[in-house]
Every structure is written in C-alpha cells, then in structure tokens.
Amino acid sequence: MTLEETAAQTPELESLTEENLTRGLMVLANLDSDLARILDTLGPPPIWSREPGFATLLCIILEQQVSVAAAKAVFTRLCGVVVTLTPENFLRLDDVQLRGIGFSRQKILYCRGLADAIASGQLDLSKLEKMDETAIRTELKCLKGIGDWTVDIYLLMALQRPDVFPKGDLAIAIALQKLKGLATRPTPVQLEAMTQHWRPWRAVAARLLWHYYLSNATAKSVTVYP
After folding, report:
1. What is the DSSP letter of 157?
2. pLDDT per position as a tens digit, 181-192
3. Is residue 10 pLDDT above 60, yes or no?
4. What is the model's pTM?
5. What sign does the dihedral 55-203-199-221 (CA atoms) show?
6. Helix, strand, coil: what percent of the chain each, to 5?
7. HEC secondary structure over 40-54
8. Closest-CA residue to 133 (of 159, 110, 167)
9. Measured on CA atoms in the order 180, 183, 184, 187, is the torsion positive or negative?
10. DSSP string over 65-121
11. CA distances from 196 to 45, 129, 145, 162 (A)
C-alpha cells in the first residue's frame, strides 16, 4: 500500500488507538523529516487520553491561559470538596466556595454555564462522540467561555479524533518554532497553514510536538497538554 493510499483511509477514523497511532506516526515521518527526527530521537509519544464528560471539559476550561500545574491544583481542590463531580453537584457550590477553591470570577461563570447547560438538558456530552467535528465545535462554542482551543483539546484528548490540531496552543507553537528553526513564533493562522500537509493525522503530529516540547529542560511554566 502506498503512503497516499494509507493516508486516504484515515479520515473516517472515529478515534485514535495504539495501532493507528503507530500508523499515523509512520505516515508523518515520511511526510516531514523534522517529525521523523523527533520520532527517531525520542520514540513515539504516549497516546494520552482523558475521560469524556463534564469533569474533563471543566478541567480544560480551568486550564485556559494558565499553567497545567495551577489548573490541576484548583481541580484537585474541587474534587476534594465535590467527591462526585457532576454538573448538579457543582451547581450546589456558591461563589464564595468556588473562589476559596481557586476559581476566578470568569472561570466561575464559564464552568457554571457548562454545568447548567448539561443539567438542564441543553447539552448532552454523550451525544458528541457520534457527531462530526464541525457539529461538535458549533455545539460547544454556543457556551460562554468555550472557544476553539478548548474544543480542540476536548476533541483531541477526550474524543481521540485523529485530525484535530490545536493551533492556539502555546506549547505547540513554541515546539514548532524550535523544530523548524523559525525566527519568530508562528501565529495560529500560520500554524494552520503550515500543518495542512500533515492531514489527516494532525492530532498525532500534535502529540509528537508536545512530546518534543516536554523533552526540553526549559519546558516548565507554559501550559502544555496532556
């Protein structure tokens, strides 16, 4: 089977598995010598996944524009207060309690809006797993505080879609700048254009770039996924 034939089979994949992650890595290594170098030097990245559902999406909202360590600390405190983290249980917490846990005013608004949408039946996260990417993006972005980056991370990590590329992710932009020896950090628009030839395996490429980023000793304070 040729490289083109292998790539052509992948758009219908519903989710990444260890098997097709390996296939995607092979395709990308043939398409891009810099990605091949990461693979040769560091080996394959972990598949990295999160459980689909309210708790994961809330955690991703907490991770917006802050370090993962800071967001994880808030999420851990939340789980200590709400043992079973459901939308209904989250909505029982008032602003004072949430601020004490570490939520900003904006994050309270966003997470409460998410919880209310699910609790009221406006949003059914279980149905997203069977929807295409465009429909999922439209559905989630109806909620205040959820933009493309948040949707990208949910699609990539929770739903394991194979061709999602979080072009707004700072760690990926830094990794690609270093990998390609660019004078300036690429913008989201530039990242989108630069990665088109990695289709339909851009979620695998994103994992490779995170893998590369995490291998650098200076990778400490920037938000990075997983």
Report:
1. I
2. 999 999 999 999
3. no
4. 0.90
5. positive
6. 60, 0, 40
7. HHHCCCCCCCCCCCH
8. 159
9. negative
10. TS-HHHHHHHHHHHHHH-SS--HHHHHTS-HHHHHHHT--HHHHHHHHHHHHHHHTT
11. 21, 24, 27, 14
